[in-house]
Design a protein that fits this description.
Largest sheet: 8 strands, mixed
CATH class of the largest domain: Alpha Beta
Radius of gyration: 26 Å
Distance between the termini: 76 Å
CATH topology of the largest domain: Purple Acid Phosphatase, chain A, domain 2
CATH architecture of the largest domain: 4-Layer Sandwich
Strand order of the largest sheet: 4-3-2-1-13-14-15-16
Shape: elongated
Number of domains: 2
């Protein structure tokens, strides 16, 4: 039995420039401390090796401190062994990165920088396909078909890139053959690039990112604990949680007349876990302006309890009638402005962005008028 942990796409050093400044440091630190969480799951599952299938670093030029601290964290967990594969973000073109890594390489870390078999232990051969550039333009796993290994040895492939014409960045040019495991006689193919965990077939898996970095793949970060009983045996694969932050998307479908604030409150996660949750609320349907203004106020009130909370309202239309506008004013400048905004929000001849801006401005006007002293 050979047991290992399969992970990828740590993206250590990711900047998170679109996030609030106070959150960026927490997200960056989580990418480093995930190394400890990977170790905890490996040890709990009885695995002595962690395979990192590419994109350990977010760029080809991580700072010296970033590199050395990652290697030091790995070294601190000896005798557990790490195997690091260059991905498309930290490809072999990063000469300085890999030279610096070799110069400071701990004894329990292997760099899979050449397409040649690596004997992990007697009877276990690793076949890596390091990314030569960010866009290699060919299937780098092709060499595995011809790779010679000892008779009866387990054959484990390690690769990073798109398969079945999809990829994390939406390009999908460097397509790995979906039947590569069968073609190359692999007992398991450990893949990286797709940040969500995915089974391609019984022997080929994307591990997903151990610490999420976007809303594209909902849920906490995970890795895969893999057990190989022997050559030809079907791998035993189980998901283990490794993330500290939880990125979630919450659909909020509303109809005119709904109490949106009550519906939202009933759907939000509760308790201290909110501090580790990045939540995207996707509102759709229709609401009266007063209800929309109340929803915005409710979101603003609860947002500080979350690591990050944003609401997307592009799919949320306003049902507004004259009696609604009477809540603003029955005449005068404010009522005139409200009438104009309502007309613009309903004008199908205007671009969608302009109609949305008018809806948002109308809601803000309701909010402003409700806040005014009577």
């Amino acid at each position: 039995m050979f047991r290992f942990l399969h992970s990828s796409d740590l993206h250590i050093g990711k900047r998170f420039g679109t996030m609030p400044e106070e959150l960026r440091g927490r997200l960056r630190d989580a990418r480093h401390t995930v190394l400890d969480r990977l170790v905890a799951q490996a040890r709990a599952g009885g695995a002595g090796t962690i395979l990192l299938a590419g994109d350990c670093f977010d760029t080809e030029t991580p700072s010296p401190a970033m590199l050395r601290q990652a290697l030091a964290a790995m070294a601190g967990h000896a005798p557990l062994r790490w195997v690091v594969l260059p991905g498309n973000h930290d490809s072999l073109l990063a000469d300085e990165l890999w030279a610096a890594a070799r110069a400071a390489l701990p004894a329990n870390v292997l760099l899979a920088t050449e397409p040649m078999p690596i004997e992990l232990e007697a009877g276990v051969a690793l076949l890596p396909a390091p990314c030569t550039t960010r866009r290699p333009g060919r299937d780098l796993t092709d060499w595995m078909d011809r790779a010679a290994t000892a008779e009866g040895a387990l054959r484990i492939g390690l690769a990073h890139g798109a398969i079945q014409s999809f990829s994390e960045d939406g390009v999908g040019l460097d397509v790995i053959a979906p039947d590569r495991a069968a073609r190359s006689g692999l007992d398991y193919l450990a893949l990286g690039d797709w940040h969500g965990q995915m089974r391609i077939n019984s022997r080929s898996w994307y591990s997903g990112a151990p610490e999420p970095d976007r809303f594209k793949h909902d849920g906490p970060g995970k890795a895969l604990l893999v057990s190989l009983a022997g050559p030809g045996a079907v791998p035993e694969v189980s998901a283990v949680e490794t993330g500290s932050f939880d990125w979630r998307t919450l659909p909020l479908e509303l109809i005119s007349g709904d109490d949106a604030t009550t519906i939202l409150a009933g759907r939000l996660p509760s308790g201290s876990v909110r501090r580790q949750i990045l939540l995207r609320v996707v509102a759709s349907g229709r609401l009266r302006p007063q209800a929309r203004a109340a929803l915005d106020a409710a979101v603003a009130a609860v947002a500080p309890e979350f690591a990050h909370l944003l609401v997307e309202t592009e799919g949320l239309a306003s049902d507004c009638e004259s009696e609604d506008l009477d809540a603003i004013d029955r005449a005068g400048a404010l009522r005139h402005a409200a009438d104009l905004l309502l007309a613009e929000s309903l004008d199908e001849g205007r671009p969608g962005g302009e109609r949305q801006a008018a809806r948002d401005a109308l809601v803000r006007l309701f909010t402003y008028c409700e806040a005014m002293p009577s």
